[in-house]
């Protein structure tokens, strides 16, 4: 089972950038009002293998409730806002992002563990 860490404060972005220098960090930006977002989240959670991904931390952002954090992520990592969206952060940089039905566990795993 995927053990999400909640991302709901702007200050946590700096922590995530620093943490990503030690291990990969995954951020899933979820729209609680979007059925595609719910489907992408469900697919990711069903596929997630905690043993394979034990070296990564996974953060969950409810972007409806935390729009400011979502906007800060886009600005901080130089990516276009999407919903749903997944990001892989390494060494303080977003090395991978995808959205909607492009979100797949195998791609996230490949990028995070490379």
TrEMBL record:
This one is known as Bacillithiol system redox-active protein YtxJ
- Lineage of this protein's species? Bacteria, Pseudomonadati, Bacteroidota, Cytophagia, Cytophagales
What the entry lists under Gene3D superfamilies is as follows: Glutaredoxin
Q: Which SUPFAM superfamilies match?
A: Thioredoxin-like
Extract the InterPro entries matched here: BrxC, Thioredoxin-like_sf
Pfam families per the UniProt record, alphabetical: BrxC
List each coiled-coil range: none
